């Protein structure tokens, strides 16, 4: 089983310190929410966000959406061998049922995240996604994997063959990928990982790394003809 | 070089026959456009779209966006060995400069497509994306590839090793992937292709197929350590 954690993801509600912004207040009113119940989004709140620490990387629900969408559609997930978690800047962890159908429309996805942060679970009756307070370290401990790999431009350029060496499809492997647009992990990922691995000498989008890791694992462990002899 | 064509993509402007819809007229007015200059979007225009033929698959700019975003970020594209084209339902072809930075925000991407359909090239001064009238067949002829592969659930489950057999990185290979949510190609893809290949027994999202094909090609031809011994 591959446990993939999108770590330090830039998904959060609007911080109190910028909640007096007028445009954001109007938006909140239209949606029947408090400002601090809205999801922070750098695409819409670029100006008020300038007051925040790390303002150039925060407010990126689009990264979370594209990563969940492509991970859950993979043959690996369809065959039941992938668990995908979103860990956020403020140490919250989202658990996602592998059969969840994530909204493709961006506005609907953001609406769903709003509801998730408000209630802790969506849909309300029989939640497919749940949110809890948890550090990356605690989550990795809970998974209790045979091996922890993290991916980063600054990792070592290792042979793909060594990634899942001496593991089987039944072993729990944890892979940590950054859910932010640039910069470094906020959590102590190096301390948590057995290996820090690099795919490519330049920074890649989170979704590109997610796709590559999922497919490395598919190539190693799934039996479909297309993954053979490549 | 891998030439990847997203074929019969559901990207088009609002058809004349539903252009009298009031909600769409208001939206057009707000954007300073005619209704028929807006991009058809099933997320927003679900109701008026019901009058259209094939209404359950049309109006999906989101599929085009997610496929371009992930294809252009791949190591294959960064190293200069990928060309990505969007062919649409009404036989238009979009050429995309490999260094184009596609908007991640959905509303901005749709605005860009609106401008592209209106003017034929964006940005206006030195276009990175251009639109022309061209069938899939004509485009494949122009590329004049050594081999044409199409991907479909109904293709044969062939060994990955045979995909790019006896080809080199310098050869032009054309891969055709459907840019629609479900159903079959509208163009005669079978007639154009040397092989019709299946990755997985269920229908996969277009972006999942794009990612897999790009990575099959990377695995075969790129020299980074991570692609070895998998």
Automatic annotation (TrEMBL), chains A, B:
It catalyses: a pseudouridine in rRNA + S-adenosyl-L-methionine = an N(1)-methylpseudouridine in rRNA + S-adenosyl-L-homocysteine + H(+). One of its GO terms (molecular function) is rRNA binding. Coiled coil: none annotated. S-adenosyl-L-methionine binds at residues 178, 183, 199-204. SUPFAM superfamilies: alpha/beta knot. Keywords: Methyltransferase, Ribosome biogenesis, RNA-binding, rRNA processing, rRNA-binding, S-adenosyl-L-methionine, Transferase. Its EC number is 2.1.1.-. CDD domains: Nep1-like. The record marks 60, 101, 104, 108 as: Interaction with substrate rRNA. Pfam families: EMG1. InterPro entries: Alpha/beta_knot_MTases (IPR029028), Rbsml_bgen_MeTrfase_EMG1/NEP1 (IPR005304), Ribosome_NEP1_arc (IPR023503), tRNA_m1G_MTases_N (IPR029026). The record marks 62 as: Stabilizes Arg-xx. One of its GO terms (biological process) is rRNA base methylation. Homodimer. Methyltransferase involved in ribosomal biogenesis. Specifically catalyzes the N1-methylation of the pseudouridine corresponding to position 914 in M.jannaschii 16S rRNA. Belongs to the class IV-like SAM-binding methyltransferase superfamily. RNA methyltransferase NEP1 family. This is Ribosomal RNA small subunit methyltransferase Nep1. It comes from candidate division MSBL1 archaeon SCGC-AAA259E22.
